[in-house]
Structure formats: C-alpha cells, structure tokens
Amino acid sequence: MPRVTGGPTHARKRKRVLKRAKGFVGGPGTIYRQAIEFTRKAGKYATRDRRQKKRHFRTLWVTRLAAAVRERGIPYNRFIPALVAAGIELNRKMLSDLANIDVAAFNAIVELARPHLVLQTPKAA
Questions:
Q1: How many domains does the structure of the chain reveal?
Q2: What is the DSSP string of 1-42?
Q3: Quick one: 68 and 105 in the same domain?
C-alpha cells in the first residue's frame, strides 16, 4: 500500500506555517521543520510580551516622572502621595506626558501638590 503524504492538505498547512515565518532569517524562514519551531516560540513570546509591554511602559512613565519631579526638588515617593492629598487624579502616563510636552502645566501641578508634601520624620535612635 502506498504511503499517504497528505497532498493538498499538508501543502496548505506548510504554506500557512511558512507564511507566518516570513521575515525570519536563514533556515527558520524557509525550512518547514525549523519554521514550525520558531513560529511556536514566536507565538509564546508574543503572548508573554503583550503583558510585559504594559509593565515596561509604566516603568518608563515612572522613570520620566521621577526625573521631572527631581528637577523641581521633590522626591518621587513623596510627590505621588502629595498628588493624592491635593485631589489631583492624573495617572502616571498623563503626568509624564505633561512633563515632556507642556512644562508650564506640569509646573502648575507640582505647585498644587507642594503644600501637601509630607516631610520626612527623623528616625529614632
């Protein structure tokens, strides 16, 4: 009995995998077996990184915001509670955008939060 290789069904499957591997350099972009492995791994990375992307952006916003606030003589860990106490409900993304784009508005927000800054209490010896 002759061996069945799949014919058109297998060709479609192979074409789909190689299409997904388009752009991969070397073997993974042209060799079916390697393309299967690399596209599986790429799918895993894509799923993982969709979640990590959110973390990375928040880290970026916090870093930018901390630098902007530090220039104005306020530590970041005191600035955020001062904003809450002042009743300012802007998130870190909006604050970092303001610090980069509209410096005057950001300075106004910092001045609104300044009276609500909690001073550092001395440690008991």
A1: 2
A2: -PPP--THHHHHHHHHHHHHTTT--SHHHH-HHHHHHHHHHH
A3: yes
